[in-house]
Design goal:
About 35% of the residues lie in helices and about 20% in strands. It is an alpha+beta fold and about 425 residues long. It has a five-stranded mixed beta sheet with strand order 5-6-1-7-10. Strands 11-14-12-13 form a four-stranded antiparallel beta sheet, with helices on one face. β5 and β6 form a beta hairpin. α4 packs antiparallel against α5, α10 packs across α11 and α12 runs antiparallel to α13. About 40% of the residues are buried. The C terminus is likely disordered.
Length: about 425
């Protein structure tokens, strides 16, 4: 048996948002449940397997989802509840290993090399973790086990149940182990869309080269891929197709920065649309600063083009930034200096140089017998927005530019809440 140089797990929750709704409301169990934007221009954020057998998937336009499954129970989502469950999940994972790298609310990478050092079989650790999630959180997850992030991620996908068009849900493995030395055997039969970074456009261009599977990509000379897609993307495709992935699992630590970035289904070159995306992302970052009682002195803008080339711009204005509107204005000023002609695949807004918020001016004419202690407090607009969202939900208030015919469409923490993904008309 080939020894494991390292053991990486990828844990992915099943139908997370829909599963939480069924956990809190057992009457939904066995019925098709869809979570997402309830207006016709919204998109599906999550669908349970009872809805998936009708063809409803994540990112399906809500209007189409309703046509495919008219009996579906459509829910708007409760981000605060999902975040609370996510924190419970992370606590369970950190009890297994300190090397936990959250990817989103419902998935994470774990490096359990230390926990499996005395055995050649890491599957008991993965199965034990899966059972703990089931016992302690009452939700199901799937886990991929491999020597790299790439293969572990694809392993968790292979471990999931499958909703068949016949209306049958085929049970999944729950845990998929890809032992060292078998990575290419597992990877090469997969469709090219399985690779990170391969979207519809890239898949079409690869199809023109006669490529249908990951193995077909791996068989091409790296030079041919570089000529077709450019040096950066061509080399990246070649390495991924040959399972070359040595990225470490980076444990979550105290934030030195806060950012929000999104990869779009289609390249976007419309500047007005990207301005709205900046506002959306700035609002998400500001919400996280409020949650952490932080301000920032530097704004960062990240742009990635379709050829994987990236640029990063930053600005330190000389004052602490606390509000989303200020953050958006500075980020959009930087965006205006960026060439968008080739289209944007990924856009990100972030802040760094985090600091405590400036203290609020105390009332010097208050009660003479009351001694007030100056504590860092946010200005009233941020307090008000946070209070409204806490009481009425994340979609209760947002920048006016994000309010459309179907109400507020916001995105936070990398999750769709719940606008069209990459839709230039969003």
């Amino acid at each position: 048996m080939t020894p494991w140089p390292r053991v990486v797990l990828h844990l992915d929750m099943d139908c997370f948002y829909a599963a939480v709704e069924m956990l809190d409301n057992p009457s939904l169990v066995g019925k098709p449940v869809v979570v997402g934007g309830t207006g016709n221009r919204g998109v599906v954020a999550a669908a349970n397997y009872e809805a998936r057998v009708f063809g409803v998937r994540s990112a399906t336009p809500m209007a189409r989802a309703r046509r495919l499954c008219p009996q579906a129970i459509v829910l708007p989502g409760r981000f605060d509840r999902y975040e609370a469950i996510s924190q419970q999940l992370r606590a369970v994972m950190r009890d297994v290993t300190p090397l936990v790298e959250p990817v989103s609310l419902d998935e994470a990478f774990l490096d359990v090399t230390g926990a499996t050092r005395r055995t050649d079989d890491p599957s008991p650790v993965a199965r034990g973790l899966r059972q703990r999630v089931r016992d302690e959180i009452n939700l199901n997850c799937c886990i991929g086990v491999a020597t790299s992030k790439l293969i572990a991620k694809l392993g968790s996908v292979a471990a999931k149940p499958r909703a068949l068009s016949s209306g049958v849900v085929e049970p999944g493995l729950g845990v998929k182990v890809v032992p060292p030395g078998t990575e290419l055997q597992f990877l090469h039969p997969l469709p090219i869309r399985a690779l990170w970074g391969v979207g519809a456009k890239t898949a079409e261009r690869l199809a023109d080269l006669g490529v249908k599977t990951v193995g077909d990509v791996a068989a091409l000379p790296v030079g041919a891929l570089e000529r077709a897609f450019g040096p950066r993307m061509g080399t990246g495709l070649y390495e991924l197709a040959n399972a070359m992935d040595d990225r470490p699992v980076v444990a979550e630590v105290a934030s030195k920065s806060i950012s929000h970035e999104e990869t779009y289904a289609r390249d976007i070159s419309d500047r007005a649309h990207l301005h709205r995306e900046v506002v959306r992302q700035a609002d998400a970052v500001a919400a996280r600063m409020v949650h952490s009682n932080l301000a920032a002195r530097t704004v960062v803008l990240k742009v990635r083009y379709s050829d994987f080339a990236s640029i990063t711009r930053s600005k330190t204005p000389g004052f602490a930034i606390e509000e989303g509107v200020t953050l958006a204005r500075i980020a959009n000023d930087m965006l205006d200096a960026v060439d968008l002609r080739d289209g944007v695949r990924l856009l990100g807004v972030g802040v760094s140089n985090l600091t405590d918020p400036p203290p609020r001016q105390l009332d010097l004419l208050g009660e003479p017998d009351v001694v007030e202690v100056a504590e860092p407090k946010r200005p009233s607009p941020g307090d008000a927005v946070a209070a409204i969202r806490k009481k009425f939900g994340d979609n209760a208030v947002a920048p006016a530019t994000l309010v459309g015919r179907d109400g507020i469409r916001r995105r936070r923490f990398g999750q769709q809440q719940w606008g069209p993904d990459g839709d230039p008309d969003a």
